[in-house]
Amino acid sequence: MSRVIRVRYEKGVLKPLEPLELQEGEEAQVVLKTNKDSIAQKLYGIAKKHKPKLTKKEFLEIIEEIENEDIRGF
After folding, report:
1. Quick one: how far is CA 32 from the chain centroid?
2. How does pLDDT run across 33-68, given as a tens digit for each residue?
3. Helix axes 56-68, 39-50, angle to 10 degrees
C-alpha cells in the first residue's frame, strides 16, 4: 500500500504530521520531495504574479496558517 504522509524535519528527526497507522517494527520506504518541487513553491510563483510584493516568507506563513486550520486537499 502506498500513501503520502507529510512530515516536518525537527532537530535531525522527521516527524509525521498525521498518524502513520503502522504496526510496531513495520518498515516503510521514505521518498523525500524538496521544497523546490513542492506545490507550495509552484503556488508561490502564481501568487507572486498577482501580488508582486509578496515575500516567500509571508507566503509560507499563510500556508502554515491554512495547514493549522486542518484544511486538506491543498
Report:
1. 11
2. 765 556 777 888 899 999 999 998 999 888 878 776
3. 120
DSSP output for 39-51: HHHHHHHHHHHH-
Residue 62 burial by CB count (10 A; 0-12/13-18/19+): exposed, middle or buried? middle
Q: Can you tell me the distance from the alpha carbon of 8 to that of 11, in angstroms, rounded to the nearest whole number?
A: 10
Q: Would you say 31 and 41 are in contact if contact means Cβ atoms under 8 Å apart?
A: no
Residue with cell 535531525: 12
Quick check: pTM over 0.70? no
CB 28 within 8 A of CB 22: yes
